[in-house]
């Protein structure tokens, strides 16, 4: 219902880019592999924070990562996002220069959308937000997650 209220469309899950599975369920937990800011048209949001990418662009990239996380959650729940009981942890990586220090603000682009979609009680999560010298395919952000689901 919240997706409709937000006017947000969640696309089909992107296929993995290498030899791994997009998510793995263990008991009530689903471990979601790192999602990159890949749009439905297969375009990528690429860039390096602190060099050629603005804060707003970085937050938008993190938000698109969240859209792809939600898509993977939907797959793991057999199409029913109401089965998501808690977003437990978000793992954020920011492609940035060594002097860039605003990683948490960038990853908020992901965290904010998860709380908007699932509400504070389900969507609020623990997380880390770290900088790194590069990410796959030159993307600006990559985000993984752990969620708890109803069995």
Automatic annotation (TrEMBL):
<feature type="domain" description="Endoribonuclease L-PSP/chorismate mutase-like">
    <location>
        <begin position="2"/>
        <end position="139"/>
    </location>
</feature>
<protein>
    <recommendedName>
        <fullName>Endoribonuclease L-PSP/chorismate mutase-like domain-containing protein</fullName>
    </recommendedName>
</protein>
<dbReference type="InterPro" id="IPR013813">
    <property type="entry name" value="Endoribo_LPSP/chorism_mut-like"/>
</dbReference>
<dbReference type="InterPro" id="IPR035959">
    <property type="entry name" value="RutC-like_sf"/>
</dbReference>
<dbReference type="Pfam" id="PF14588">
    <property type="entry name" value="YjgF_endoribonc"/>
</dbReference>
């Amino acid at each position: 219902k919240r997706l409709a209220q937000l006017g947000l469309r969640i696309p089909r899950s992107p296929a993995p880019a290498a030899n791994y599975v997009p998510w793995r369920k263990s008991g009530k937990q689903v471990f979601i592999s790192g999602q990159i800011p890949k749009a439905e048209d297969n375009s990528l949001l690429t860039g390096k924070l602190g060099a050629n990418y603005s804060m707003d662009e970085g937050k938008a990239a993190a938000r698109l990562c969240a859209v792809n996380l939600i898509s993977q959650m939907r797959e793991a729940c057999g199409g029913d996002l109401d089965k998501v009981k808690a977003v437990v942890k978000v793992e954020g990586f920011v492609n940035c220069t060594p002097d860039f220090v605003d990683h948490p603000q960038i990853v908020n682009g992901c965290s904010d959308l998860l709380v908007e979609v699932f509400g504070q009680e389900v969507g609020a999560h623990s997380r880390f937000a770290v900088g790194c010298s590069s990410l796959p395919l030159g993307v600006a952000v990559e985000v993984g997650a752990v969620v708890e689901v109803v069995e």
